[in-house]
Structure formats: structure tokens, C-alpha cells
Specification:
Blueprint lengths: L4 E7 L4 H9 L4 H8 L3 E6 L11 H5 L12 E3 L1 H7 L13 E3 L8 H4 L7 H4 L3 E4 L16 H12 L2 H16 L5 E6 L1 H8 L5 H23 L6 E6 L5 E2 L2 E2 L2 H6 L5 E2 L11 E6 L3 E6 L11 H7 L3 H7 L3 E7 L5 E5 L2 E8 L2 E7 L11 H8 L8 E5 L3 E2 L11 E2 L5 H4 E6 L13 H8 L16
Parallel strand pairs: 1-6, 1-7, 5-6, 9-18, 10-11
Antiparallel strand pairs: 2-20, 3-4, 7-20, 8-19, 11-12, 12-17, 13-14, 13-17, 14-15, 15-16
């Protein structure tokens, strides 16, 4: 018999190894009892960029961020910028020329997504959302529509992120009282404490323990309502994190070479020849103005002609791990200090050709797939860079200073925990596969235009 409802708790920034350690130490007894013993504790691969917001989309749409045309928490649309120009402070965000979802523009993420991609909230009429910004079609079932930004602002000013997770917990209990099909909850505590201190700090560990309490309280509440056995319960994460010791400024790198750069928050600069959009601080889209203006893609050959030696210098920087750029013949050139390769996607099949030494290797799970697809978005950069571990790509305007980062292609950021109260088959899982999996387990039809595939038969 199909499950009647599904609850997904997105523990923002939760790491697989942290769950593994705490479970082995018997410090997560409720998660052990209700999820691990009954169901599954698995590794999954998230999306690129591995960052809050875009990396939530797989759970709610079954699609990659690039497929949704939201390829980062910051992006720059060259064609729209060429068409509508720079604009003024009074036209902030107009026409979708550029975006940053850090702050008030978070509310634009739903209208920025491709219109033909359905969210779960448009599919299931009795679905609810708590502290989640991606909720197109939800209407008044968004229980934190306005208050979310105030809770985040309070947490930012006070560092009391346990308070925010606690508020989410109280709202979960109220939803369980209702006749509901689906509930998606974002719990920011682990991510925020990891950024403030470290991914393995006691503050972050404390939020894993609090998550265990939430699971225990949920199970008791579901059981009291006769809903425990026919409710899918998931714990997922959008990305991992790694400790950060050095900040590298992409904007300063470009401007030191005479390339005036457009970037957030200084978005009213005119006469720029490049734009830099950083996500999670571990990846960045870089866009270049061509000789004919902003309207066209700048390929590898174009950038080398306009700015000789620039890409080679960028790759040689210690902070830059991987650089990807389109070529004139339609391939994606991938370069690191280890080597060079080319990616081609044709009819859904990906071809990976190493030129000398492999620039990737085993530390970059799913990198070929992720790089092949991210350039499909019109809002993706001409050049995309992924940071080295220990480094990020943003120096200024990050208050408080980040002690941990994410967003890159490295396994520390890309491998995430997946826990649920259903036995899942032993095969590779991407986070885009969870959406069609819970729809299938609930007996609903799966949309055809998604990237993910169900992991149950």
C-alpha cells in the first residue's frame, strides 16, 4: 500500500561523516531507532553548486539547479543585461539581469525558476513548507513566508540558531495535527554554526543532537495520530562543508589585471568588462564582455584572445582547484593543476576525454555529470571555478567571517547524508532522485521533464 504522506527535514549543511560518528557513539538514539534500524542510512551526491537554495531544488522538483535556470545563489544573465542595460537602484532585480538570493531577493527565486518545471507544492495540494524559500504554488500553506527573513536576521545578529530550529520544530508538530500530504522543513542550525566556527565544532554537533530530539518528538506525535506507519520520514542535506583558512577574492584578481568587475554588493558600477558571482563561497561564475558586447557567450578561445594568459594565471592560484570553460567546438574544457580534460554531452550521454593527466579523479564524485549540465543554463558563467579545500572565493562583505565553506565539486561538499524509514536498494543516489522516489512510494505520477530517477522499483 502506498505511503500517505512524506516529511522531509533538510538539515542544511549536515555532513555524512558527522552523522556516522554520532550514530556510532549512540548519541542519536531516535534517528537510530526510527530511521536507521527501520530504513536506510546512505550517502548521496548533491548538485553543483553545492549551496543552499539551488541545492534545495532537487528535493522539490527532481531537477538540477541549471535545469531550473538558477545556477547559483548569485548569477548574471548576459543576454538580459545586454538587452536592458545596467539600470539603476530603482530597478533592482528588474528583467532578471542579475541576482543574489542572499537577502531580500530570496523572494524572487520562485519567479526566476523555469515556468514548465513543477514544484511538489504544485503537485500535491495538501503540502506545507517551513523556512523554505523555494515554494512556488504553495499559497497560504507556506507557514513562514514573511517571518523566515526575520528569523534569519535574528539568528544572524544573535548567533542563536537553535532558536530558529526550535521554532521550526513547533511548526512541524502543528502540521502533523492536519490532514497533510507533504511537509518540507529547512533547519539552518548545523550550517550556520559550521560557518561561524567549524563543521566539526561542538556548536554544530549540538544541532545534530537537537535534530535527533525533533525526530523523537515527531515520531511520538505521528504515532499518537495513527500516522507513524504510513508516513515517509527523510533527513537530507543540501551540501557538506569544509573548514576555511584562506579567503581569495576573484574580483580583486580580475581588477588587478585591469578588468573592471561587476559583483555583489557593488552592483551599480558601470563600464565593467567582467562579472563575478560567488556561491557558497566555494564556486564562482565569471562572465566576460565580448567585443560585440554582453550578448554572447565568451568561449575559451575568446577569453584567451581578450585577456591573454588570464585563465592560466587563475588556475595557478592556490585557491582555484578546477576551472571549466566552453570551447568554440562545443566542448567543456576542464583544467586543474593536475591536468586537463574535455567533456561533451550528446543525447544525454557524457564523454570525458583526458588530455594528458586527469584533472579530477576520485575526490570529485559526479563532477563530469555536474559540469556537463551546469553550462546548459543561460545564466551560467563563461568560466566556472571550484575552490580548493581550505580556501573560498570571497574576501569582502562576508560578516561574520566564514570559518567553513561549501559550493565546490570536492567530495567534502558533494557527499551528503540520506536517512529515511524505508529500505533503499544499494545503488548510487543523487539528490535529484529523491523527488521521484517519494512520489513513487506515495503512488503519485512522476513528471516527465525531470533529471532524477526513482531509486525504488
Amino acid at each position: 500500500m502506498p505511503y500517505k504522506r512524506s516529511i522531509i527535514l533538510l538539515a542544511d549543511g549536515a555532513r555524512y561523516d558527522s552523522f556516522e560518528k554520532l550514530i556510532s557513539e549512540n548519541r542519536l538514539p531516535n534517528i537510530q531507532k526510527y530511521l536507521v534500524e527501520r530504513g536506510s542510512f546512505r550517502k548521496a551526491v548533491t548538485v553543483f553548486p553545492s549551496t543552499t537554495g539551488p541545492a534545495h531544488m532537487p528535493f522539490l522538483t527532481g531537477c538540477l539547479p541549471a535545469t531550473c535556470n538558477v545556477p547559483g545563489i548569485r548569477w548574471f544573465d548576459k543576454k538580459m543585461y545586454a538587452r536592458y542595460g545596467h539600470g539603476s537602484i530603482f530597478s533592482l532585480g528588474a528583467h532578471g539581469r542579475y541576482r543574489s538570493y542572499v537577502g531580500i531577493e530570496t523572494f524572487r527565486i520562485n519567479s526566476d525558476m523555469r515556468k514548465d518545471i513543477c514544484t511538489i507544492f504544485e503537485i500535491l495540494p495538501k503540502s506545507y513548507s517551513i523556512f523554505n524559500s523555494i515554494n512556488r504554488g504553495i499559497g497560504d500553506r507556506n507557514l513562514t513566508r514573511i517571518m523566515r527573513i526575520w528569523y534569519w536576521y535574528y539568528g544572524h545578529l544573535t548567533d542563536r540558531w537553535r532558536f530558529v530550529d526550535s521554532a521550526a520544530s513547533k511548526k512541524i508538530m502543528k502540521v502533523i495535527e492536519k490532514d497533510f500530504d507533504f511537509l518540507f522543513v529547512v533547519l539552518p542550525g548545523i550550517d550556520e554554526y559550521s560557518h561561524l566556527a567549524s563543521p566539526v565544532h561542538e556548536y554544530a554537533d549540538g544541532q545534530y543532537l537537537y535534530l535527533d530530539k525533533i525526530i523523537g518528538d515527531m515520531a511520538l506525535k505521528l504515532d499518537s495520530k495513527g500516522k507513524l506507519e504510513d508516513t515517509l520520514v527523510w533527513i537530507v542535506s543540501d551540501h557538506g562543508l569544509s573548514s576555511t583558512h584562506t579567503h581569495f577574492c576573484v574580483n580583486s584578481f580580475l581588477e588587478s589585471r585591469g578588468i573592471k568587475t561587476f559583483y555583489f554588493p557593488l552592483i551599480y558600477r558601470k563600464g565593467c568588462a567582467a562579472a563575478s558571482m560567488v556561491s557558497g563561497n566555494g564556486m564562482a561564475h565569471i562572465y566576460f564582455k565580448g567585443k560585440e558586447g554582453w550578448g554572447d557567450i565568451s568561449t575559451l578561445e575568446d577569453v584567451e584572445k581578450m585577456h591573454p594568459g588570464l585563465l592560466k594565471e587563475l588556475v595557478s592560484e592556490q585557491a582555484v582547484d578546477i576551472l571549466a570553460v566552453r570551447t568554440q567546438d562545443g566542448r567543456i574544457a576542464v583544467t586543474s593543476k593536475r591536468g586537463k580534460a574535455f567533456i561533451t554531452i550528446n543525447g544525454g550521454k557524457i564523454k570525458y576525454e583526458v588530455d594528458g593527466n586527469d584533472p579530477l579523479g576520485s575526490d570529485y564524485p559526479d563532477a563530469q555529470y555536474q559540469l556537463a549540465h551546469i553550462f546548459s543554463s543561460p545564466r551560467s558563467g563563461d568560466v566556472i571555478i571550484s575552490a580548493s579545500l581550505g580556501f573560498d572565493l570571497r574576501v569582502k562583505y562576508e560578516d561574520p567571517e566564514h570559518k567553513a565553506s561549501h559550493g565546490s565539486l570536492h567530495k567534502e561538499h558533494m557527499l551528503v547524508p540520506l536517512l529515511c524509514n524505508v529500505k533503499l536498494p544499494s545503488k548510487p543516489i543523487r539528490t535529484i532522485d529523491i523527488f521521484p522516489t517519494y512520489l513513487k512510494l506515495m503512488g503519485h505520477q512522476i513528471p516527465q521533464n525531470i533529471d532524477g530517477e526513482p531509486i525504488v522499483s
